[in-house]
Amino acid sequence: MHHFQYxxxxxxxxxxxxxxxxxxxxxxLYVYSAATLRRHFQAFDSxxxxxxxxxxYSVKANSNVHxxxxxxxxxxxxxxxxxxxMHRALAAGVPGQRIVYxxxxxxxxxxxxxxxxxxxxxxxxxxxxLERINALAGQMGRTxxxxxxxxxxxxxKTHPYISTGMRNNKFGLDMEQARAAYLLARDLxxxxxxxxxxxxxxxxTTLAPFLEALDRVLDFHERLRDLGLAITHLDLGGGLxxxxxxxxxxxxxxFGEAVSERLRGRGLSLILEPGRVIAGNxxxxxxxxxxxKSTPSKNFIIADAAMNDLVRPSLYQSYHxxxxxxxxGRDEITADVVGPICESGDFLARDRILPGMQQxxxxxxxxxxxxxxxxxxxxxxxxxAAEVLVDGASARCxxxxxxxxxxxxxxxxAEE
Length: 416
Ligand SMILES: *Cc1c(COP(=O)(O)O)cnc(C)c1O
Hints:
Blueprint: E1 4-7, E2 10-13, E3 16-17, H1 18-25, E4 29-33, H2 34-45, E5 53-58, H3 65-73, E6 77-80, H4 83-91, E7 99-101, H5 108-116, E8 121-124, H6 127-140, E9 144-149, H7 175-187, E10 191-197, H8 208-226, E11 233-235, H9 252-263, E12 269-272, H10 276-279, E13 283-294, E14 299-303, H11 312-316, E15 322-324, E16 332-338, E17 347-355, E18 362-365, E19 386-391, E20 394-399, H12 404-412
Parallel strand pairs: 4-19, 5-6, 5-12, 6-7, 7-8, 8-9, 9-10, 10-11, 11-12, 14-16
Antiparallel strand pairs: 1-2, 2-3, 4-13, 13-14, 13-18, 15-18, 16-17, 19-20
Helix pairs in contact: 5-6
The structure holds pyridoxal-5'-phosphate.
C-alpha cells in the first residue's frame, strides 16, 4: 500500500497533485510520501513485537537525511555500510547505540569513527577486519561489540548482483571460518563477540530462503554456546522484497511471525535491516517527455529522467511501473522509455505497452524510493535530481537540484 493514487484524473502524492510538484521543483524529480514511509516502518516493526528487537533501516536504500530523521523519530536504528552512511545517520540524530555496521571493506578512519560513536555492533566479514577492529579499539582504549557475518550458502532466488549469501559471494565467512573467527575474537582483548549476523540478499519474494538461513545460523549459534560464547544479538539482515509488478512477496507480518517463532526461548535479541521494503514504494521518480520518435522497428519515448537518475532497469533489468501523471486517454503503443544518456543501456522500460505519450507529458516511474536516488550519478554531466517529501497536503524540498556550478566546483577548486 502506498499513497500515490489517482484523484480527479491525475496522480497525487498524498494530497498534493504531482503536476504541481513538477512545475514547482522541475523534473526529473524524486517525490516521497511521509505517510507511506511511516506506514511501512510501522508494519515492519510491529511484525516483531513478540521478540526483543531493533529495526535498523538500511541507509543505502535511500540515504536522504530527512528520511533518516523521520524514521529515527519512530524509533528506527540504522544499518550502515560506510563511514559516509554513519555520518548521515548521526546527522539525522540517530544514537550510536542504534547503529550496526556491515561491509567487507571497513577502513581505519571508518572504524575509528564508529568506535568513537560507540555503535551497537560491527558485523565483521573477515579475520583481518576483526584484527583491525581490535587494534584500533585498543589504541582508543575502547571495546568493540562485534558479530561475525555468516555466509550460510543459501540461494535467495533473486538477481545475481543482489545475492549475497551464496558460497561464491564476497560477503561473510562460511561456518568453519566463522567458528575460527569467533575463537580468535574470544581471545582478542578489545573486541567482545556478542552478535551473529547474516544478510543473504535483496528483493526476496519468498520466506523459504530466510528461514533456511535462519535455521543454519541458529544451529551455528548453539555450537558457539558450546564454546562458551555469550551471544546476545542475532542480526538477520534485510532483503524482504516488494511488489514492483507482479511479485507477491510475503507480508512483513508473515515474516515476523515465522522468525519470532524460531527465536522463542533462545534469549537472543533480534536485529533487522530492512531497506527496500520501507522505502521502495514510498517514492516515485517524475520525468517529462522531451521527444517521441518512431523508427521502423521501435517506438521511443524520450524522457528527461535517465539511467543516471534511476539505474535499476539498466543494472538489474528490473521492472518499474510507468504511467502518465495526467492520463489523457490516448491509444496504447509498445514503446521503450529512454533517457538522454549516450548508452543503449539507458532505458527505464523496454517494449512496454503504454498510452502514446506526447511531448511535454509528465510520467511517473513507480517504486523508485529505494536504490533510486542513492544510486544516482552525474554521468553525462547531468546534475542530480531534486527530492521532495510530501506529508499530507504539504510538500518540502529535502534536497535541492544540483546546478551546473555544482558539477564543476570540485574540479575548479581541486587545490583546496
Ligand atoms: C543492502 C543491505 C540491506 C538492505 O537490503 P534490502 O533488500 O533493501 O532490505 C541490509 N543489510 C545489509 C548488510 C545490506 O547490505
